[in-house]
Amino acid sequence: MSTPLGVHEKSRLGHVDALRGIAATYVFLFHLTEVPSPSPNLPSWATQLLAGGWSGVTLFFVLSAWTLAMTRDARDHEDRPDLRFLVRRFFRIAPLFYCWLIFMVIRNYGFTGFFDLKERVISNLTFTFNFYPPWQQGIVWASWTLGVEMVFYALFPLVWRLTRSVRSAAGFLGVSLVVSWVIQFTVYRVMDEASANIYIALSLATSLPAFGFGILAYRIQAAATRSDRLKSWKIPLLIAGGLTWSILLTQIPTWGVRAFFQPFAYSCILLGIHAAPPRWLSSSAMCNLGKISYSLYLNHPYLVYSLAPLYFLYNGWFHPESGISFGLSVLTAGTLLITISYMSWRWIEEPGNRLGRKVLAHIPKRSNS
Prior knowledge:
There is one protein chain. 74% of the residues lie in helices and 0% in strands. It has 369 residues and is mainly α. The protein has one domain.
Protein backbone atom coordinates (compact mmCIF):
# COMPACT_ATOMS: atom_id res chain seq x y z
CA MET A 1 0.00 0.00 0.00
CA SER A 2 2.96 2.30 -0.22
CA THR A 3 5.34 3.18 -3.01
CA PRO A 4 8.52 1.08 -3.23
CA LEU A 5 11.42 2.58 -1.34
CA GLY A 6 14.40 3.57 -3.42
CA VAL A 7 12.36 4.33 -6.53
CA HIS A 8 12.41 7.97 -7.62
CA GLU A 9 13.37 8.80 -4.02
CA LYS A 10 14.03 12.47 -4.72
CA SER A 11 10.59 13.00 -6.22
CA ARG A 12 8.70 11.29 -3.41
CA LEU A 13 6.17 13.34 -1.49
CA GLY A 14 6.93 13.02 2.20
CA HIS A 15 3.51 14.19 3.37
CA VAL A 16 1.79 11.54 1.23
CA ASP A 17 4.00 8.87 2.82
CA ALA A 18 3.15 10.30 6.23
CA LEU A 19 -0.57 10.11 5.50
CA ARG A 20 -0.11 6.42 4.74
CA GLY A 21 1.46 5.97 8.14
CA ILE A 22 -1.43 7.86 9.74
CA ALA A 23 -3.93 5.64 7.89
CA ALA A 24 -2.19 2.48 9.14
CA THR A 25 -2.08 3.86 12.68
CA TYR A 26 -5.78 4.74 12.58
CA VAL A 27 -6.68 1.19 11.52
CA PHE A 28 -4.39 -0.19 14.25
CA LEU A 29 -6.14 1.91 16.93
CA PHE A 30 -9.55 0.84 15.64
CA HIS A 31 -8.65 -2.84 15.80
CA LEU A 32 -7.10 -2.39 19.23
CA THR A 33 -10.57 -1.47 20.50
CA GLU A 34 -12.42 -4.16 18.50
CA VAL A 35 -10.31 -7.31 17.98
CA PRO A 36 -8.87 -8.52 21.31
CA SER A 37 -10.94 -9.97 24.12
CA PRO A 38 -10.76 -8.29 26.51
CA SER A 39 -10.00 -5.07 24.69
CA PRO A 40 -8.34 -2.13 26.47
CA ASN A 41 -10.64 0.13 28.46
CA LEU A 42 -11.44 3.06 26.23
CA PRO A 43 -12.48 6.41 27.76
CA SER A 44 -15.86 7.60 26.54
CA TRP A 45 -14.42 10.76 24.96
CA ALA A 46 -12.34 8.65 22.53
CA THR A 47 -15.00 6.09 21.61
CA GLN A 48 -16.48 7.93 18.62
CA LEU A 49 -13.12 9.06 17.29
CA LEU A 50 -11.59 5.57 17.25
CA ALA A 51 -14.79 3.96 15.97
CA GLY A 52 -14.06 5.78 12.72
CA GLY A 53 -10.70 4.05 12.43
CA TRP A 54 -12.06 1.56 9.92
CA SER A 55 -12.06 4.48 7.46
CA GLY A 56 -8.26 4.38 7.43
CA VAL A 57 -8.61 1.74 4.72
CA THR A 58 -10.49 4.21 2.53
CA LEU A 59 -7.67 6.71 3.02
CA PHE A 60 -5.23 3.97 1.95
CA PHE A 61 -7.17 3.43 -1.27
CA VAL A 62 -7.37 7.16 -2.06
CA LEU A 63 -3.62 7.55 -1.43
CA SER A 64 -2.85 4.42 -3.43
CA ALA A 65 -4.67 5.70 -6.51
CA TRP A 66 -3.00 9.11 -6.14
CA THR A 67 0.52 7.65 -5.98
CA LEU A 68 -0.14 5.13 -8.74
CA ALA A 69 -1.18 7.98 -11.03
CA MET A 70 1.79 10.10 -9.96
CA THR A 71 4.41 7.39 -10.52
CA ARG A 72 2.81 6.28 -13.77
CA ASP A 73 2.95 9.86 -15.00
CA ALA A 74 6.68 9.89 -14.27
CA ARG A 75 7.27 6.51 -15.94
CA ASP A 76 5.08 6.82 -19.01
CA HIS A 77 8.21 6.98 -21.15
CA GLU A 78 9.38 3.51 -20.03
CA ASP A 79 9.51 0.54 -22.35
CA ARG A 80 6.64 -1.89 -21.58
CA PRO A 81 5.24 0.40 -18.84
CA ASP A 82 2.20 -1.80 -18.09
CA LEU A 83 4.24 -4.95 -17.57
CA ARG A 84 6.83 -3.14 -15.51
CA PHE A 85 4.12 -1.57 -13.36
CA LEU A 86 2.54 -4.96 -12.60
CA VAL A 87 5.92 -6.54 -11.78
CA ARG A 88 6.72 -3.71 -9.34
CA ARG A 89 3.35 -4.00 -7.66
CA PHE A 90 3.57 -7.78 -7.29
CA PHE A 91 7.02 -7.75 -5.70
CA ARG A 92 5.97 -4.82 -3.51
CA ILE A 93 2.98 -6.65 -2.02
CA ALA A 94 3.48 -10.41 -2.37
CA PRO A 95 6.60 -11.23 -0.26
CA LEU A 96 5.27 -10.06 3.12
CA PHE A 97 1.78 -11.35 2.37
CA TYR A 98 3.11 -14.79 1.41
CA CYS A 99 5.10 -14.97 4.66
CA TRP A 100 1.95 -14.26 6.64
CA LEU A 101 -0.04 -16.69 4.49
CA ILE A 102 2.38 -19.53 5.29
CA PHE A 103 2.25 -18.67 9.00
CA MET A 104 -1.56 -18.45 9.19
CA VAL A 105 -2.19 -21.67 7.25
CA ILE A 106 0.20 -23.63 9.49
CA ARG A 107 -1.16 -21.95 12.64
CA ASN A 108 -4.80 -22.63 11.83
CA TYR A 109 -4.69 -25.89 9.88
CA GLY A 110 -1.24 -27.44 10.28
CA PHE A 111 1.12 -28.43 7.50
CA THR A 112 -1.65 -30.39 5.75
CA GLY A 113 -3.68 -27.18 5.40
CA PHE A 114 -1.97 -26.32 2.12
CA PHE A 115 -3.45 -29.50 0.61
CA ASP A 116 -6.76 -29.59 2.49
CA LEU A 117 -7.54 -25.99 1.45
CA LYS A 118 -5.73 -25.96 -1.86
CA GLU A 119 -8.42 -24.02 -3.76
CA ARG A 120 -8.62 -21.35 -1.08
CA VAL A 121 -4.84 -21.17 -0.75
CA ILE A 122 -4.52 -20.80 -4.53
CA SER A 123 -7.05 -17.96 -4.50
CA ASN A 124 -4.87 -16.20 -1.90
CA LEU A 125 -1.64 -16.87 -3.79
CA THR A 126 -3.18 -15.36 -6.92
CA PHE A 127 -4.93 -12.51 -5.05
CA THR A 128 -8.29 -13.50 -6.54
CA PHE A 129 -10.09 -14.28 -3.27
CA ASN A 130 -12.17 -11.09 -3.44
CA PHE A 131 -14.21 -12.78 -6.18
CA TYR A 132 -15.31 -15.63 -3.88
CA PRO A 133 -17.80 -14.43 -1.22
CA PRO A 134 -16.95 -17.09 1.40
CA TRP A 135 -13.22 -16.31 1.09
CA GLN A 136 -13.29 -12.53 0.76
CA GLN A 137 -11.69 -11.84 4.12
CA GLY A 138 -8.56 -13.74 3.14
CA ILE A 139 -6.66 -16.29 5.20
CA VAL A 140 -4.33 -13.58 6.54
CA TRP A 141 -6.14 -11.28 8.93
CA ALA A 142 -7.17 -7.93 7.40
CA SER A 143 -5.87 -9.04 3.99
CA TRP A 144 -9.25 -8.43 2.33
CA THR A 145 -7.83 -5.04 1.34
CA LEU A 146 -5.12 -6.77 -0.72
CA GLY A 147 -7.80 -8.75 -2.54
CA VAL A 148 -9.28 -5.37 -3.52
CA GLU A 149 -6.00 -3.57 -4.16
CA MET A 150 -4.35 -6.22 -6.34
CA VAL A 151 -7.40 -6.52 -8.60
CA PHE A 152 -7.36 -2.75 -9.02
CA TYR A 153 -3.65 -2.95 -9.90
CA ALA A 154 -4.54 -5.39 -12.68
CA LEU A 155 -7.15 -2.93 -13.97
CA PHE A 156 -5.01 0.18 -13.53
CA PRO A 157 -3.23 0.19 -16.93
CA LEU A 158 -6.67 0.41 -18.59
CA VAL A 159 -7.98 2.90 -16.02
CA TRP A 160 -4.88 5.03 -16.60
CA ARG A 161 -5.62 5.31 -20.30
CA LEU A 162 -9.18 6.38 -19.55
CA THR A 163 -8.32 9.09 -17.00
CA ARG A 164 -5.80 11.37 -18.69
CA SER A 165 -7.57 14.61 -17.72
CA VAL A 166 -9.68 16.06 -14.92
CA ARG A 167 -12.81 15.59 -17.02
CA SER A 168 -12.12 11.96 -17.90
CA ALA A 169 -11.10 11.20 -14.29
CA ALA A 170 -14.40 12.70 -13.09
CA GLY A 171 -16.18 10.55 -15.67
CA PHE A 172 -14.45 7.43 -14.38
CA LEU A 173 -15.47 8.32 -10.83
CA GLY A 174 -19.08 8.75 -11.94
CA VAL A 175 -19.07 5.40 -13.73
CA SER A 176 -17.47 3.69 -10.74
CA LEU A 177 -20.21 5.04 -8.45
CA VAL A 178 -22.93 3.77 -10.80
CA VAL A 179 -21.26 0.36 -11.18
CA SER A 180 -20.81 0.14 -7.42
CA TRP A 181 -24.48 0.95 -6.77
CA VAL A 182 -25.73 -1.50 -9.43
CA ILE A 183 -23.64 -4.33 -7.97
CA GLN A 184 -24.89 -3.51 -4.48
CA PHE A 185 -28.48 -3.42 -5.71
CA THR A 186 -28.02 -6.80 -7.44
CA VAL A 187 -26.24 -8.50 -4.54
CA TYR A 188 -29.03 -7.68 -2.09
CA ARG A 189 -31.45 -9.44 -4.42
CA VAL A 190 -29.49 -12.64 -4.90
CA MET A 191 -28.06 -13.10 -1.37
CA ASP A 192 -29.55 -13.14 2.10
CA GLU A 193 -29.07 -9.86 3.96
CA ALA A 194 -26.30 -11.06 6.29
CA SER A 195 -24.19 -12.48 3.44
CA ALA A 196 -24.89 -9.43 1.27
CA ASN A 197 -23.75 -7.07 4.04
CA ILE A 198 -20.40 -8.88 4.32
CA TYR A 199 -19.94 -9.10 0.55
CA ILE A 200 -20.67 -5.40 0.02
CA ALA A 201 -18.40 -4.35 2.90
CA LEU A 202 -15.41 -6.25 1.47
CA SER A 203 -16.11 -6.01 -2.25
CA LEU A 204 -13.97 -4.23 -4.83
CA ALA A 205 -17.20 -2.63 -6.08
CA THR A 206 -17.67 -0.70 -2.82
CA SER A 207 -14.08 0.53 -2.77
CA LEU A 208 -13.76 1.29 -6.49
CA PRO A 209 -15.00 4.90 -6.11
CA ALA A 210 -12.25 5.53 -3.53
CA PHE A 211 -9.69 4.78 -6.25
CA GLY A 212 -11.66 7.04 -8.57
CA PHE A 213 -11.51 9.87 -6.04
CA GLY A 214 -7.75 9.37 -5.66
CA ILE A 215 -7.12 9.59 -9.40
CA LEU A 216 -9.40 12.63 -9.72
CA ALA A 217 -7.60 14.34 -6.82
CA TYR A 218 -4.27 13.73 -8.53
CA ARG A 219 -5.54 15.14 -11.83
CA ILE A 220 -6.94 18.22 -10.06
CA GLN A 221 -3.65 18.91 -8.26
CA ALA A 222 -1.66 18.38 -11.47
CA ALA A 223 -3.86 20.87 -13.33
CA ALA A 224 -3.86 23.31 -10.39
CA THR A 225 -0.08 23.13 -10.06
CA ARG A 226 0.28 24.24 -13.65
CA SER A 227 -1.98 27.23 -12.98
CA ASP A 228 -0.76 27.75 -9.37
CA ARG A 229 -4.32 27.84 -7.99
CA LEU A 230 -4.26 25.03 -5.44
CA LYS A 231 -2.79 27.07 -2.56
CA SER A 232 -5.71 29.49 -2.60
CA TRP A 233 -8.05 26.53 -2.12
CA LYS A 234 -6.16 25.02 0.82
CA ILE A 235 -8.40 26.30 3.63
CA PRO A 236 -11.77 25.62 1.87
CA LEU A 237 -10.61 22.09 0.97
CA LEU A 238 -9.47 21.31 4.51
CA ILE A 239 -12.71 22.70 5.96
CA ALA A 240 -14.85 20.70 3.51
CA GLY A 241 -12.91 17.51 4.14
CA GLY A 242 -12.72 17.99 7.90
CA LEU A 243 -16.42 18.79 8.29
CA THR A 244 -17.47 15.84 6.13
CA TRP A 245 -15.15 13.51 8.04
CA SER A 246 -16.37 14.73 11.45
CA ILE A 247 -20.00 14.22 10.43
CA LEU A 248 -19.17 10.71 9.23
CA LEU A 249 -17.87 9.75 12.68
CA THR A 250 -21.49 9.59 13.82
CA GLN A 251 -22.66 7.53 10.84
CA ILE A 252 -23.00 3.78 10.33
CA PRO A 253 -20.63 2.68 7.50
CA THR A 254 -23.30 2.24 4.83
CA TRP A 255 -22.59 1.95 1.11
CA GLY A 256 -23.06 5.68 0.53
CA VAL A 257 -20.63 6.57 3.31
CA ARG A 258 -18.01 4.10 2.06
CA ALA A 259 -18.39 4.78 -1.65
CA PHE A 260 -18.83 8.56 -1.75
CA PHE A 261 -18.72 10.67 1.40
CA GLN A 262 -15.70 9.06 3.02
CA PRO A 263 -13.36 9.17 -0.01
CA PHE A 264 -14.68 12.67 -0.78
CA ALA A 265 -13.64 13.83 2.69
CA TYR A 266 -10.19 12.25 2.46
CA SER A 267 -9.62 13.57 -1.07
CA CYS A 268 -10.39 17.12 0.07
CA ILE A 269 -8.03 16.74 3.03
CA LEU A 270 -5.31 15.29 0.78
CA LEU A 271 -5.63 18.15 -1.72
CA GLY A 272 -5.65 20.73 1.07
CA ILE A 273 -2.54 19.28 2.69
CA HIS A 274 -0.79 18.90 -0.67
CA ALA A 275 -1.37 22.59 -1.42
CA ALA A 276 0.92 23.56 1.48
CA PRO A 277 2.17 20.55 3.49
CA PRO A 278 2.76 21.28 7.19
CA ARG A 279 6.37 20.84 8.21
CA TRP A 280 5.61 18.25 10.90
CA LEU A 281 3.90 16.00 8.36
CA SER A 282 7.04 15.92 6.22
CA SER A 283 9.35 15.20 9.16
CA SER A 284 11.68 12.19 9.08
CA ALA A 285 9.71 10.41 11.80
CA MET A 286 6.40 10.73 9.94
CA CYS A 287 7.93 9.80 6.58
CA ASN A 288 9.56 6.71 8.11
CA LEU A 289 6.23 5.72 9.61
CA GLY A 290 4.78 5.93 6.12
CA LYS A 291 7.59 3.87 4.64
CA ILE A 292 6.77 0.92 6.91
CA SER A 293 2.99 1.45 6.63
CA TYR A 294 2.38 -1.75 4.65
CA SER A 295 4.16 -3.78 7.34
CA LEU A 296 2.27 -1.85 10.02
CA TYR A 297 -1.00 -2.75 8.38
CA LEU A 298 -0.36 -6.44 7.75
CA ASN A 299 1.44 -7.09 11.03
CA HIS A 300 -0.95 -5.36 13.40
CA PRO A 301 -4.04 -7.66 13.61
CA TYR A 302 -2.28 -10.72 14.97
CA LEU A 303 -0.12 -8.65 17.34
CA VAL A 304 -3.12 -6.73 18.67
CA TYR A 305 -4.97 -10.02 19.26
CA SER A 306 -2.01 -11.73 20.93
CA LEU A 307 -1.49 -9.03 23.57
CA ALA A 308 -4.99 -9.40 25.10
CA PRO A 309 -3.62 -10.68 28.47
CA LEU A 310 -1.67 -7.44 28.87
CA TYR A 311 -4.75 -5.33 28.18
CA PHE A 312 -6.61 -7.32 30.84
CA LEU A 313 -3.80 -6.59 33.29
CA TYR A 314 -3.79 -2.87 32.52
CA ASN A 315 -7.60 -2.71 32.76
CA GLY A 316 -7.44 -4.00 36.32
CA TRP A 317 -4.96 -1.35 37.43
CA PHE A 318 -6.69 1.85 36.36
CA HIS A 319 -10.16 3.41 36.14
CA PRO A 320 -11.58 3.07 32.58
CA GLU A 321 -12.25 6.80 32.18
CA SER A 322 -8.71 7.75 33.14
CA GLY A 323 -7.45 6.57 29.75
CA ILE A 324 -4.25 5.28 31.38
CA SER A 325 -4.91 1.60 30.67
CA PHE A 326 -5.70 2.42 27.04
CA GLY A 327 -2.59 4.59 26.78
CA LEU A 328 -0.40 1.80 28.16
CA SER A 329 -2.00 -0.64 25.72
CA VAL A 330 -1.29 1.68 22.78
CA LEU A 331 2.28 2.26 23.98
CA THR A 332 3.01 -1.46 24.43
CA ALA A 333 1.35 -2.68 21.23
CA GLY A 334 2.54 0.31 19.20
CA THR A 335 6.18 -0.04 20.24
CA LEU A 336 6.21 -3.74 19.42
CA LEU A 337 4.37 -3.15 16.17
CA ILE A 338 6.78 -0.48 14.93
CA THR A 339 9.78 -2.62 15.89
CA ILE A 340 8.44 -5.74 14.17
CA SER A 341 7.30 -3.75 11.15
CA TYR A 342 10.70 -2.14 10.72
CA MET A 343 12.29 -5.60 10.74
CA SER A 344 9.78 -7.01 8.23
CA TRP A 345 10.27 -3.96 6.00
CA ARG A 346 14.04 -4.37 6.10
CA TRP A 347 14.23 -8.16 5.83
CA ILE A 348 11.16 -8.99 3.72
CA GLU A 349 9.83 -5.93 1.90
CA GLU A 350 13.16 -4.48 0.80
CA PRO A 351 14.57 -7.83 -0.47
CA GLY A 352 11.28 -8.29 -2.32
CA ASN A 353 11.68 -4.88 -3.97
CA ARG A 354 15.27 -5.72 -4.92
CA LEU A 355 14.14 -9.02 -6.42
CA GLY A 356 11.50 -7.13 -8.39
CA ARG A 357 14.15 -4.78 -9.78
CA LYS A 358 16.24 -7.78 -10.85
CA VAL A 359 13.23 -9.23 -12.66
CA LEU A 360 12.65 -5.86 -14.36
CA ALA A 361 16.26 -5.80 -15.52
CA HIS A 362 15.69 -9.07 -17.39
CA ILE A 363 12.50 -8.03 -19.19
CA PRO A 364 13.40 -7.83 -22.88
CA LYS A 365 12.87 -4.47 -24.53
CA ARG A 366 10.18 -4.12 -27.11
CA SER A 367 11.45 -4.26 -30.67
CA ASN A 368 11.10 -1.03 -32.65
CA SER A 369 10.87 -2.85 -35.91
